[in-house]
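Write out structure tokens for LIM zinc-binding domain-containing protein.
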Amino acid sequence: MADQEDICVGCGKEITADQPGCNAMNQIFHVDCFKCAKCTKTLAGSSFYNIDEKPTCENCYQESLEKCTACKRPISDKLLRACGGIYHVNCFVCFSCKKSLDGIPFTLDSENNVHCVPCFHDKFAPRCAVCSKPIIPDEGEKESLRVVAMDKSFHVDCYKCEDCGMQLSSKLDGHGCYPIDQHLLCKTCNGNRLRVASST
Ligand SMILES: [Zn+2]
Ligand SMILES: [Zn+2]
Ligand SMILES: [Zn+2]
Ligand SMILES: [Zn+2]
Ligand SMILES: [Zn+2]
Ligand SMILES: [Zn+2]
């Protein structure tokens, strides 16, 4: 009595009163034959996903999704590929300030943590020994200008005589640095300080 339409696509047998059928994805299955293609859990009556024409249970669907490198949760909406990982747009954030880096320039530190550029400089740029601010490249420049002296770094503008304010430079004649106890001094002021010290 059964016509073609009453054949279960799962097992190829008839749908009968004993073995009722259900309709899913425009096909007919025995209730018992309508199973998750991955874990074979029976799907009748529960929610399922149609993945490549194969019924898939909620669990297997979630597991088939790509996982966010940061929060380890599946990504079902927009994802972002960066630094060899896959992220929720909201999970790809600066390691320091937690700002989303979607569409924003970023850099990696040696441990592969991502930082927005300002945070990266704040954390890793050498600090000026005078003003203790990070020494970062000027806008549009790649390399930062700095003076290295006495095992310390200085902004070019901060590398000057503490007494008279003269810009110091090892490259300019008469502008060399003559430090006393880590104080930056020009040759003249160095001489003055020594004279004061020896007269007391
Ligand atoms: Zn069947
Ligand atoms: Zn499953
Ligand atoms: Zn995430
Ligand atoms: Zn940041
Ligand atoms: Zn400085
Ligand atoms: Zn001076």
